[in-house]
User: Fold NAD(P)/FAD-dependent oxidoreductase from Tepidibacter hydrothermalis.
Amino acid sequence: MSKVIVIGGGPAGMMSAIVAAKNNEVILIEKNKEVGKKLKITGGGRCNITNMREIEDFLEKIIKNPKFLYSSLYTFTNLDLLEFFKERGIEFKIEEDFKVYPENDRSDIIIKTLQDEMDEVGVKIMYEKTLIDIIVEDEEIKGVILDDESIVKADKVIIATGGHSYPKTGSDGKIHSILKKHGENITKIYPALVPLVFNEDWIRNLQGISLKNVKVSAKYFKNKKISMDGDILFAHFGLTGPVILNLSSYINKYLKDGNIELNFDFVPTVTKNEVRKIIRKNNNKSIYNNLKEILPVNFTKHLLEYLNIDKKPNNLTKEEENKIVESIKELKLNCSGTKSINESIVTSGGISVKSIDSSTMESKVIKDLYYAGKVIDIEGLTGGYNLQIAFSTGYLAGISV
Assistant:
């Protein structure tokens, strides 16, 4: 029986520890007082655990290194994950866009189930211990060094410490600098699934206003185009919301080269001519009252104020009408950057997939060292994809040690 150390008590680490413990002695090392600290806050605490798309379609929602994940996602699918929890008494529900949540909308039941299973299979957990280095001899892992200077020997090590996002939960990304000095290839780190900052001051007045099913498009690196629909939320710094977060993962790397112009269609199911008719539908009402059948009044009021248009529809010039229509159907805003990585949901970058055997999750640089979860340079959109990636890579690493 081999001795296996798992570093990190997130979803990837807990799953790998559970699976590995069936044939090995397993020690899980967690820097917090509890496991699953980041998992607890995912999905606003509701835990969007996976997505029910077919795996072929699932892979299309992974925007960075999807081919690397073929083995892990087919070895432990979204159906396998749900069956794992259902066998332990957890019920689930499917919501919009095939997102899967626990029936009771609580992430703590997922964490408790994983904790109970670790107890059941004999995983030993060392809390409030931080990895400061790994022990490598002749390109082979021999153990780890902790912050109290203690050395824990091991035959195999699984690193599942997460990326750089939400460092207060423990995933501060320091592991990457440790691994780099041992020869691992670390790709450049960027915030991903992160709110976007805009230059236009007037949109700060829209803070707190949310809009549904907005079409957002952009041109970025070498005239690449991206377009997607979803909900947005205006904030004091710019914009957030699901479609903004997803879009950020495409353009984040290119914002260092300058601003990127985003185009907004706030009513993609309504044509320009239909908007014109709605504007002039009732000449006795204000324009924003006419428009309230397609847009919130608090949004159109601020938009008309920005356009400096304050009149009834029958006094509206053709030029002013065109301005309103263009602002609703083709508003252009200049994105100047993202919020910090501390506010991003996931990290873009990490251990290069070229350094990992995708069929086992073992490092190609250091023998008997394995990786799972967001410590690797893999990245999905919002909707349960990143959690499934964590569980699947954790499972594959666990059965491979």
Q: What stands out?
A: The first strand starts at residue 3 and ends at 7. The radius of gyration is 24 Å. The CA atoms of residues 350 and 377 lie 4 Å apart.
